[in-house]
Structure formats: structure tokens, C-alpha cells
Amino acid sequence: MRVLLVHPSPLLYSELYLRLEPLGLERIATAVRAAGHDVRLLDLQVFDHADYFRELDAFAPRAVAFSLNYLANVPEVIDLAKATKARRPDVFVFVGGHSASFVAAELLEHAAGAIDCAVRGEGEMIAPRVLEAVGERRLDRLPGVVTRDGAGPSPTLLDDLDRYPPARDLARRRHRYFLGVLDPCASAELTRGCPWDCSFCSAWTFYGRSYRKASPEAAAEDLARIGEPNVFLVDDVAFIHAEDGFAIGREVERRGIRKQYYLETRCDVLLRNQEVFAYWRRLGLFYMFLGVEALDAEALKRHRKRVTTNANMEALQVARRLGLAVAINIIADPDWDEAQFAAVREWALTVPEIVHLTVATPYPGTETWLTEKRQLTTHDYRLFDVQHAVLPTRLPLRRFYEELVQTQAVLNRKHLGWGALRRYGGPALRALAHGQTNYLAMLWKFKSVYNAERQHGDHARPVTYALAPRRLVSGPPTPAQLYIHQPASARRTANA
Ligand code: B12
Ligand code: SF4
Fold first, then answer.
1. What is the largest CA-CA distance in the chain?
2. What number of helices (H) and strands (E) belong to the chain?
């Protein structure tokens, strides 16, 4: 069967700093190919809708699968599904991915028949089974599958991360993938899942707090296959267990793989496992993202970050000592006033790190979606991208965005424009010599992307598709309310 896998367009965030390959779809592609299908992949981050319709006509797929990791992409995917069915009624259309998993039933409602099924959970095991069942009634008896007629049992986790290495050969225009000065940049996954449970995050609810790892050999083999000189390691929290990081590192060293790496981790993990990060520094670790989230103890507690402000600051010192470029995130609450923004600005100016801001957003999949008492001010999917305020703001909305953008502008002043060129002129020129212009192009884009007027104006757009209203819970949420993949403990109780 001919199968077309589609990743939607970029959102605000990735218009500026980075653009990354659709790793989830590449892994699914391997599984679908293994089942004997003819697969193509189209990434709308680097192609446009006209390309999609051309591909639809030229390749004439029997099935089209959309990846929906981000809520803000929901309207685009629904409209593409409708246009697909209007143009080629026989095409089987299905969706899956992180956000699709949390709003599966409402996607089917919005699509009014244009989406044949939504798939909850990881895609590698189930996608081939969905294709096998196309046109049959048993579709909604498959694990994780939701149709307008019913839903199958809970999705099952992939038992072995080594099994379906990403089909990177399917991603065209790979030179468009980059991460700041790491231009071009590929992605790879060494581990999957997160055992923590921060209240604002949906990584743990998706994977049921499970944590799996690739074998050192398979992880190194995958890195060796990558043509690009730079790699984004997409793990939620890198090197939770130092011994695993060392084991992969030794395989990387043995094979003489030389790349520059970006990874994300927690401050307490960096503090605990400094040696493994120092080791990876020698292997090429260049750039690190640390989830700081808040500068005060009360907010850290509210986010259930399970880390102290002191540990966060110590971790920054360690990263500096290791000589790493570091980006951190701070969560801005819509309740912030001018003084709170000013305090973050002041702090951001005193530290060398790239300080990035997101807006506290209860979205489906997070615990706060079930527990945050403040009313949502909008249900427009497009605004659930952690760059818009979906809760009431203490400041007038327009003023809130002005403060937000002014605070993000510290980053612009320190790390973009001429300042960045002074610091990274060498790598930027080397990239340019290889025809890579993604990084250089981003350096002067800040004002067109982060713009108070534009962000404020986004709230006035007509809403065609709106998120279903929340059902708040009074006590702690149950596993059934929280998780896509049920945690092992909940599975044991259910089976007892
Ligand atoms: C890498 C990453 C990114 C990359 C994007 C890469 C890309 N091209 O897709 C970048 C850095 C750009 C990014 C940005 C953002 N991200 Co992000 N990101 C991740 C991260 C860390 C890993 C994703 C990944 O590659 N995983 C590995 C692959 C193999 O898994 P996967 O893509 O999820 O695919 C699997 C399943 O989802 C499923 N699947 C996927 N597609 C399909 C399709 C079908 C048909 C089927 C059946 C199954 C299926 O099967 C795949 C294989 O198992 C996740 C955390 C996580 N653990 O998922 C957050 C995460 C997805 N991001 C998140 C957020 C909030 C964001 C941002 C909005 C803001 C931010 N500050 O991070 C921005 C905006 C996004 C944008 N489009 O601009 C949230 C999602 C929130 C939500 N529900 O909308 C997550 C869960 C992080 C979190 N802690 O909450 N992100
Ligand atoms: S924010 Fe990080 S540590 Fe917290 S649950 Fe999400 S992935 Fe895990």
C-alpha cells in the first residue's frame, strides 16, 4: 500500500531558533516499511500546502497519516484532512502523536468524517496494524485506536527502542533542519520517557512515567548513520543514569563518531552526574538546555519541579565550568505584573545563559488542565503553544505581551544579531561555506516573530475549531484521567 506520512507546519517557536526533523514519523516509517508498504514523508515545516496536494496527486497514496504533537497544529491538520477527502475520497486518513492522543475523540468530531481514526500513544507498533485493518470493522478494536464508532483498549508501549531506527532517508530538504548555530542539525533519541511528574508537562502523562533506553550499540549505530555534523538528542531528560550515558559514549568513541550535540536535562541530574556530562563534553556536547522554570521556591513547588533554587543555580555554575552554551526556560505566569517581568529581565541580564520564556498554559495532558482553577480565556487551539496567555492576565492583555516580548528581547540583545555573530562568527561562516544559511537568517528575525501586536492580535482571529471545555477534578486526578500509556502500577491494579 502507498502511505504518505505528513508533519504539519512550524509554529511560532520554531520560526526563530530551530527547525527539526520529524523523528516520530521517521520511526513510524521504518515500522510501516517493514510491513511491506511503500512510504513517503512530507514535512510541512520545509514544504508548503501546494507541495502536499501535488504529492497527493502524484504519489496517489491509499493512506495519509498526520502527526499531531502540538495542539496549535490541530486546525491546520483538520483542514488538510477535509481537503484530502474532498480531493481523493478513497484515501484513508488517520492522525496520531502527542497532542492527538489527549484530544483524540474531539479531533474526529471536528473532522466530521474526514479523519477515519485517531491513534493514541506511540505509533511504531500500531501504525502497521491500522494499515492492515483499513476498511475493516475491527479498526476500533485495536489498542489506542479511536473511531467515531468506538475506541479500542489502552495503547501498548514499544518494548524495544532499538527496533525501528528512524528512516532519515525519507526526510527531504534535510539541510533546512538546524538548531541555532548547529546548522545543519539532525535528531536522535537515546532514551524515551520521564520518571518525574511536573504539573505543567505532558511528557510523563503520555508515557505513563515509564523510562526506556536504546542499547549502547544501537544508539551509537544510529548516530553513526547520521550525515549531519550536529545532533539534537531529543530525550526528555538526558543521562538520568550516568552509567547509560557512559556506555553509549564509549560506543561512540570506539566508532570514532565525531559530532556536536545539543541535549536537554534537569538541573539536579546535571549536579548528580557531572562526570558523564564532562565526558560527553569531550565527545562533542556543545549546547545544553536546563529546565530551570522558576527563580523562586514557591513557583518551583507549584510546578512540582522537585528541585531547589540553590540546586538550579549550582547547576548553572557546573554547566559554565564545563564550557557549555546553556539555554534555560522560565515559565511566565499570566498573573505576573510589571515588577515580576522586570525581576526576570534584571536577572537575565546578569547571567551568560540564553534565557527563554514560555507562558504557563494548562493544556490537555498536563495535570494543570485538570486542576487549574482559573478559567480559560480562550479555547482556540492555535493559542495553546505556550507563547500565548490562555488564562486571565493581571495586566491588560496587550500590556502582558509587551512585558513578555520586552523580557524575551534580552535574549535578542545578548544572543542574536551582531552579538551572536561576534561570539559564533567562526561556526556561522563555516556553515555558510557549506551553503547553510539557517542560522544567519534567524539572527535578525526576532522582531518579526516575537511581536506584542501580533501576539495580541492572534486572540482576535475567528475560531473555527475550539478545544472542548475542561472537566476539572476536585481531588488528585486518577491514572485513567492522566495517562495515555498507563503506568505499570496502574496496569497491575487493572489486571488484578
Ligand atoms: C523534539 C521536541 C520538540 C522539537 C520539535 C521536533 C519536531 N520536528 O517535531 C522542538 C524543539 C521544535 C519543539 C518545540 C516545541 N515543543 Co516540543 N518536544 C520535543 C520533545 C522533547 C521530543 C519529541 C520527539 O522527537 N520525540 C521522539 C519521537 C520518536 O516521538 P514523537 O515525535 O512523540 O512521536 C511518537 C508518538 O508521538 C507517535 N506519533 C507521532 N506522530 C504520529 C502520527 C501517527 C499517525 C501515529 C499513529 C503516531 C504518531 O508515535 C511516535 C513514535 O512513537 C517532546 C517531548 C516528548 N517526550 O515527546 C516535546 C513536546 C512534544 N513539546 C512540547 C511543547 C510544549 C513544545 C513547544 C510548544 C514549546 C516548548 N517550549 O517546548 C514548542 C513548539 C512546537 C513547534 N512546532 O513549534 C510538549 C507538547 C505539548 C503539547 N501537547 O502541545 C512536549 C510533550 C514537551 C513537554 N514536556 O510537555 N519540541
Ligand atoms: S518538565 Fe522535564 S522533568 Fe518535568 S516531567 Fe516534563 S520532561 Fe520530566
1. 63
2. 22, 16
What is the Cα–Cα distance from 178 to 437, expressed in whole angstroms? 10
- Across-strand partners of 284? none
The closest residue, in CA terms, to atom 74 on ligand 1 is 13
Q: Provide the H-helix boundaries in 322-416.
A: 338-350, 367-371, 397-415
Task: Identify which of 98, 101, 116 to mutate to test ligand 1's pocket (most ligand atoms within 8 A of the CB).
Answer: 98
| Test site for ligand 2: of 189, 198, 307, most ligand atoms within 8 A of the Cβ | 198
Long-range contacts from 223-229, C-beta under 8 angstroms, 24+ separation: 223/188, 223/252, 223/257, 223/259, 224/255, 224/257, 225/165, 225/168, 226/168, 226/186, 226/188, 226/259, 227/174, 227/186, 228/174, 228/177, 228/184, 228/185, 228/186, 228/259, 229/184, 229/259, 229/260
Beta carbons of 343 and 295 less than 8 angstroms apart: yes
Find out whether the beta carbon of 208 lies less than 6 Å from any atom of ligand 1: no
Q: What is the pLDDT along the chain (496 residues), one digit of tens a residue?
A: 999 999 999 986 666 788 999 999 999 999 999 999 999 999 999 999 999 999 999 999 999 999 999 999 999 999 999 999 999 999 999 999 999 999 999 999 999 999 999 999 999 999 999 999 998 888 999 999 999 999 999 999 999 999 999 999 999 999 999 998 899 999 999 999 999 999 999 999 999 999 999 999 999 999 999 999 999 999 999 999 999 999 999 999 999 999 999 999 999 999 999 999 999 999 999 999 999 999 999 999 999 999 999 999 999 999 999 999 899 999 999 999 999 999 999 999 999 998 999 999 999 999 999 999 999 999 999 999 999 999 999 999 999 999 999 998 887 676 666 677 777 777 778 888 888 887 777 777 777 778 899 999 999 999 999 999 999 999 999 999 999 999 977 655 444 3
- CB of 234 within 6 A of ligand 1: the answer is yes
Quote the pTM value.
0.95
Ligand 1 pocket residue status of 98, Cβ below 6 Å: yes
- CA of 218 from ligand 1 middle (Å) equals 22
Compute the distance between CA of residue 227 and CA of residue 442 in angstroms, rounded to an integer: 23
